[in-house]
Amino acid sequence: MGIRGPRGVGKTTLMLQHIKKDLNTADVLYINADDIYFSDHRLIDLAEKLVQRGISHLFIDEIHKYKDWSKELKLIYDYYSELKVVFSSSSVLDLNKGTSDLSRRAIVYNLYGLSFREYLELFQGITTPVFSLDEIVSGRPEEVGLKTPLLYFEEYLKCGYYPFANENSFDEKLWQIVNLTLENDIPVFADMPASMGRKFKKLLAVIAQSVPFKPNMSKLAEIIGAGRNQMPDYFRFIEDAGMIA
Predict the structure, then answer these.
(1) pLDDT digits (tens, 9 = 90+) for 153-184
(2) Cα separation of 99 and 104, whole Å?
(3) Which of 115, 69, 75 is nearest to 88 (CA)?
(4) Which element (helix H / strand E) includes 181?
(5) CA distance linking residue 196 with residue 186, whole number of Å
(6) Peptide bond between residue 212 and the one before it cis (omega within 30 degrees of 0)
(7) What is the pTM of this model?
(8) CA pair distance 27, 35, nearest whole angstrom
(9) CA terminus-to-terminus distance, the chain
(10) 3 state DSSP class of 110
(11) 223 phi and psi, to 5 degrees?
(12) Is there a contact between 4 and 95 (Cβ–Cβ < 8 Å)?
């Protein structure tokens, strides 16, 4: 099973909470695919050792940092089906590309940031029920008793998407997420020079100050110093990376 989503939405926390609350930790190994161990070891060899030792669950964080990860996960599924594997990736781009090897073998879920309802419960202590579209149209949500939803909604738009928004270092962490995504994740995936990160930042800044709007590709290309024909790809990269919707 795979979990994909932008940086910072809680994939690692979700896996670690599941391990500690629902599984016997003696039967589980949690690893980061960026670990130095994998500089001279293969993932499939690790899986073999785990099965030999009776380990039933393998959790792999940042799977996209491991070369040929999808091919080796496919082999693990075929050869060691008794080992349950959960993997995550903050690079939605790489995960989309790699899951073709895992078709019919892995179910991949999208983990988004907090919804307004989740934000209310986590940060404001306000629990609201889930409503269907029919219930909303009929006016039933008035029963919730939330008298000033717009007051909370303005705060949600500022910092409610990420679960770490109540930490003192929120601004710094958010900036790190933007930098890593635009300067590292996208250029590495698209085989671009690292200097492209500056252009992606310029584009994101224009979008952030202008939405909602219909993009003028020629004008945007001129602003960030890029070719017009590349602009649709740049938009798609930033969207797939979770920076825009």
Answers:
(1) 988 988 899 999 888 888 999 999 999 899 98
(2) 10
(3) 69
(4) none
(5) 9
(6) yes
(7) 0.80
(8) 20
(9) 25
(10) strand
(11) -65, -45
(12) yes
